[in-house]
Specification:
The chain is mainly alpha-helical. The chain folds into 2 domains: about 110 residues, no CATH class; about 100 residues, no CATH class. About 25% of the residues lie in helices and about 5% in strands. It has 5 helices and 2 strands; from the N terminus they run H-H-H-H-E-E-H. Strands 1-2 form a two-stranded antiparallel ribbon. The longest helix has 20 residues.
């Protein structure tokens, strides 16, 4: 749903995609037009003309959140967590196989990251983004201690797939979602945003060794 559209039965929810909220993208039709349906990915893979960076967000039938709205094209009030997870797993497998099976994947240095944005456990620090309760007023960011490993019990799986280097690596270092952001920003020479700039935020470099 685009901002102002409250039809929660729709497949797409902009709240899971940060780019429409960025003023520079809102004000630039060329940049805004780079947000495309997932079908465009397969056209790009077939033509070999793929962007340097792609951010893929599943629709609300396949993002493992589920849709409780009775008008939804999937799920609905009687849906189960098992069904939500299976739809998400099927979507992830379909996308990973399409990308890694394409000719584009065979050339250069490519990386594919698969990660959930949240789990089911609570975050044991004083932060509630829904109520905008934060310790840095106006920032909508939690305090630094929320990123300390001792305060994390809401863990998610993160998978890095590359077409080069060492495979099968398992890293026991502490990561959070800012680690992924920091890694992407470093790769493209961009400034670090938010807690990606913290010296304690690890990049994913050990998973991307050549």
């Amino acid at each position: 749903n685009w901002p102002g559209d409250n039809n929660t039965a729709k497949l797409y929810a902009v709240k899971h995609n940060p780019f429409p909220y960025v003023a520079e993208i809102q004000g630039d039709p060329q940049q805004f037009a780079k947000q495309v349906p997932i079908e465009q990915l397969f056209s790009d893979l077939g033509s070999g003309q793929v962007p340097a960076f792609s951010y893929i967000v599943p629709d609300q039938c396949r993002d493992m959140h589920g849709l409780g709205n009775p008008l939804a094209p999937c799920g609905g009030a009687s849906d189960t967590d098992d069904n939500d997870v299976k739809r998400g797993d099927d979507e992830a497998g379909w996308l990973v196989n399409a990308i890694t099976g394409s000719p584009v994947w065979q050339g250069g240095h490519n990386a594919l990251f698969v990660v959930s944005d949240e789990g089911n456990g609570p975050l044991t620090c004083p932060y509630n983004p829904d109520n905008r309760v934060d310790t840095a007023p106006g920032s909508l960011l939690p305090a630094a201690d929320c990123y300390a490993p001792a305060n994390y019990n809401d863990r998610v799986v993160f998978i890095a797939i590359t077409n080069y280097g060492v495979h099968g690596i398992q890293d026991t270092r502490f990561y959070n979602h800012f680690s992924l952001l920091k890694t992407i920003e470093a790769a493209f020479g961009l400034p670090f945003l938010g807690h990606a700039a913290d010296s304690t935020t690890n990049t994913l470099a050990p998973l991307l060794v050549p």
